[in-house]
Design a protein that fits this description.
4 helices, mainly alpha
């Protein structure tokens, strides 16, 4: 038996015509519906906001160790060398 799609609930918004036109234009550029575009944008921002709210508490020694690790250059590896030697996509034409 195929699984049922999750039930969607309505969410109503009042927007200015120019905002709706801008959203519609962006949704068309992405090839998605207005609803899907707005849901994706809202979810992405919601995740970003909540991740910004994460609080990590460290004792001074642990903080110093973490800071030293983050400040240290990555250890050379074959994968890193390949990555650094690969031209960026915007340079390929």
């Amino acid at each position: 038996m195929p699984s049922e799609a999750p039930r969607r609930e309505p969410l109503n918004l009042r927007v200015l015509p120019e905002d709706r036109a801008l959203i519609d234009r962006a949704a068309r550029a992405r090839g998605v519906t207005r609803t899907d575009f707005m849901l994706r944008a809202s979810r992405d921002l919601a995740v970003e906001v909540l991740l910004d709210e994460v609080y990590v508490e460290l004792d001074p020694d642990a903080f110093d160790a973490l800071a030293a690790h983050l400040d240290a250059p990555p250890a050379p590896s074959e994968q890193l060398r390949r990555t650094l030697a690969t031209p960026p996509p915007w340079d390929e034409a």
